[in-house]
Design a protein that fits this description.
This protein has 718 residues and is an alpha/beta fold. The chain has helices at 2-27, 35-58, 66-90, 97-118, 126-145, 150-182, 187-235, 239-244, 247-289, 291-298, 300-338, 340-345, 349-401, 407-448, 510-517, 540-546, 561-565, 574-583, 587-591, 610-622, 640-651, 665-669, 688-694, 697-705, 709-717; strands at 469-476, 487-494, 499-503, 525-530, 533-534, 547-550, 628-632, 657-661, 673-678, 681-686. α7 runs antiparallel to α9 (247-289).
Length: 718
């Protein structure tokens, strides 16, 4: 309240200074028709006013607010800037102190209000300051990202200014036409007014079309570029990042937030500038038509702003509740569809339908409350508009009777007032929308700026790699459970030309070893050496060309068989693809497919069986000729013939380092060394015969969980 009083005092003091300077100029007979002299005098007055007001504000504590200081500077100079531009364009300088001062005050207030709400910098607590500074930084970052589209934006802003200028003069000449028709008819004046109306209408339509087209081109270019950059940043993140972030959040950043970022500058600033220019221009023209009616009309603005603020607070909260409710409904439907086999097997169709119905009813109720708030707001707002129009028409009739304005001027004023109300509501709305856009940009920049915890900056690319792997005193815990160590002082050696089998109960740390060797995570302590060099020293692409893994449940991508086998190898020849398929015993079934290697595998390989997907995954690994090959129970879905061919293929590479996670005894018995892992530590290590002779943990584990049908049959016949 004290700041409002300080603002009002400054207005009164400034108005006194304006008329004092104007009176002094009159007494000194400084009024002249010389255009340059009048402009110079106004600029001098602006400097004097700014100096006096700014100096005076220093002595008042309540007037030292940055918002008030910004308003003083803009308020003092905006009239001089405007009149200078108008005189250079039209050459008819007209100095009306009160009209110029009033329009300048309103325009300066609107400009400072825009800056304070969208990019504020007022006094407050530390957290509030930090948030406001962050909003300004984010907004400037978005503008810098638009650098490749600056030409499009500049062209769009030029057409924006032309469209607004043309739109502003259409109601003015509409009133002139009415005055011409209502008085003594003069054909020349009527023809000129009609011609100018048509010219401004055509110019407005053409400029608006060009403006919209250029802005849309800039938005589309910006959005596409940001999406590519964001996706590129996301795929470079470590696996721990994707375990802590929901897929829906990533999808929202890629689809919704990037679009909002584009709107923050191109679309929102387009609407904002267009509305502000029209508002200032129409205010100037309305004041020139009748300053009394203008003051009456401005009385509606505080009430409209208050109503809009109350409405936005409740409507945004209810809209968020509706969006959350819709998300829950979509999640319920998605779960039922993705698990339709389970739903049908347990005869839960009606239960899922009831769950979805409950979610939809919740969404319906929340939408009803939201729309009720909107209906009440629209009713109150329109009643306010009607009351203002009635008052305007009443006083307009009185002014016409007293000869203070013509009928055409009243018509023009009413047309301006209708547009001005819409513009003020648009300004109030667009502030909140721009804040929303800036907050969306913050979420996107958070992902763009994130550095992966697993570094990929290595540059080591030796021409010869032996494949000797050493795990040295590893301590590791997953990002989701940092207090639980999955590996504890873990050490292991994988030698070239040997097959190492990891065995143990679930949760012992076998898959964790594989993930660390694949550089999916970074251990908290210790290191993994490859040929005596830490894994992080190797170049990322080189490392993953030398280390390949085939999982128990391999993932295929939408596309053809050929594309999946050659995944990540652009330019791979068909001969290499077929050779890898033959090694994995996949060439036979691929050749029998409808389109052979060009057959589409479906989403995640849904058109293939489990064994077929596994053989394609093995071929995808073998085509790289890796020095270190990791197999995670890959023969579990293979028939005997395919398993034998895969075993023969692996045996044909005597220098390859092979790491196997297996639960089938036949696979484990062939290993050169078997490592039993339990609780993140190596419990036993040796060949199958050595471990069986010890009758220790491995022997007991074999008796409990290893289930080999051939072995059981053999034991049963003995």
């Amino acid at each position: 309240m004290r700041k409002v009083l300080a603002f009002a005092c400054i207005l009164c003091i400034d108005l006194f200074i304006v008329y004092t300077l104007d009176l002094g100029g009159t007494l000194l007979k400084s009024r002249t028709k010389n255009l340059d002299y009048n402009l110079l005098r106004q600029w001098v007055e602006s400097v004097l006013r700014c100096t006096l007001l700014y100096t005076g504000s220093v002595f008042f504590k309540d007037a030292t607010d940055p918002l008030i200081k910004r308003w003083i500077i803009v308020h003092c100079f905006i009239s001089s800037v405007y009149e200078t531009g108008r005189s250079n364009l039209f050459g008819n300088y007209r100095l009306d102190k009160f009209n110029t001062w009033l329009v300048g005050s309103v325009a300066a207030a609107l400009a400072c209000l825009f800056w304070e709400i969208t990019l504020p910098d007022t006094n407050g607590d530390a957290k509030g300051k930090e948030t406001k500074q962050k909003a300004r930084v984010l907004f400037m970052r978005v503008i810098r990202l638009y650098r490749p589209d600056y030409i499009l934006l500049c062209g769009a802003f030029v057409f924006l200014a032309l469209a607004v200028l043309c739109e502003m003069f259409i109601p003015l000449y509409t009133g002139e036409v009415i005055d011409i028709l209502g008085s003594k008819y003069q054909w020349d004046n009527f023809r000129l007014a009609i011609f100018l109306m048509a010219l401004f209408s055509l110019g407005s339509s053409f400029s608006a079309g060009c403006r919209g087209g250029l802005f849309m081109c800039a938005i589309n270019s910006f959005t596409c570029r940001v999406k590519v950059n964001l996706f590129g940043s996301l795929v470079k993140q470590d696996i721990g990042f994707f375990e802590t972030i929901k897929t829906g959040d990533i999808g929202s950043r890629l689809s919704t937030d990037t679009t909002l970022m584009g709107r923050a500058v191109a679309l929102n600033v387009n609407v904002l500038l267009r509305t502000m220019i029209k508002t200032v221009g129409m205010l100037y023209l309305m004041v020139s038509l009748s300053w009394k009616l203008t003051l009456l009309m401005l009385m509606e603005t505080p009430l409209t702003g208050l109503l809009q603020n109350i409405y936005d607070t409740h409507y945004q909260r209810l809209s968020k509740e509706v969006q959350d409710s819709m998300a829950r409904a979509n999640e319920t439907a998605g779960e039922a569809v993705s698990g339709i086999r389970t739903v049908k097997s347990f005869r839960a169709e009606l239960r899922e339908a009831d769950r979805y119905d409950v979610c939809l009813m919740d969404t319906h109720n929340r939408k009803t409350r939201r729309d009720t708030v909107r209906a009440i707001y629209l009713l109150v707002r329109r009643m306010t508009e009607v009351g203002m129009k009635v008052a305007m028409l009443y006083y307009g009739r009185l002014f016409i009777q007293y000869g203070q304005m013509s009928t055409g001027n009243l018509v023009s004023f009413i047309l301006y007032q209708s547009d001005l109300g819409d513009n003020i509501r648009t300004l109030i709305y667009i502030f909140g929308d721009m804040l929303n856009s800036v907050s969306a940009a913050g979420k996107v920049f958070e992902y763009l700026d994130r550095k992966p915890e697993v570094s990929a900056d290595g540059n080591l690319q030796p021409s010869v790699l032996k494949g000797h792997v050493s795990f040295k005193d590893l301590i590791f815990s997953y990002p989701k459970r940092p207090d639980h160590n999955v590996l504890k002082n873990f050490s292991l050696e994988l030698k070239p030309g040997q097959m190492t089998a990891l065995v143990g109960m679930s949760g012992g740390g076998k898959s964790t070893c594989v993930s660390l060797l694949e550089r999916f995570y970074q251990p908290q302590h210790g290191q993994i050496l490859l040929d005596g060099q830490p894994l992080q020293n190797y170049q990322h692409n080189y490392l993953h060309s030398k280390i390949a893994m085939v999982g128990q449940e391999p993932v295929l991508f939408s596309g053809t068989v050929r594309e999946n086998i050659a995944y990540g190898l652009p330019g791979c020849t068909m001969e290499k693809i077929k050779e890898a398929a033959r090694k994995a015993n996949a060439d036979v079934f691929i050749s029998k497919l409808e389109n052979g290697y060009d057959t589409d595998v479906g989403e995640r390989g849904c058109l293939l069986s489990g064994g077929q997907k596994q053989r394609i995954a093995i071929a995808r690994a073998l085509i790289r000729d890796p020095q270190v090959l990791i197999l995670d129970e890959v023969t579990s879905s293979l028939d005997t013939e395919s398993e034998q061919m895969v075993q023969q293929t692996l045996a044909s590479c005597p220098t390859q380092t092979l790491l196997v996670i297996a639960h089938r005894l036949k696979t484990i018995e062939r290993a050169d060394q078997i490592v039993l892992i339990d609780g993140g530590e190596v419990v036993e290590q040796g060949t199958h015969k050595e471990l069986m002779d010890r009758k220790g943990s491995y022997y007991k584990l074999r008796e409990r969980i290893f289930n080999d049908p051939d072995q059981e049959k053999e034991n049963g016949t003995q």
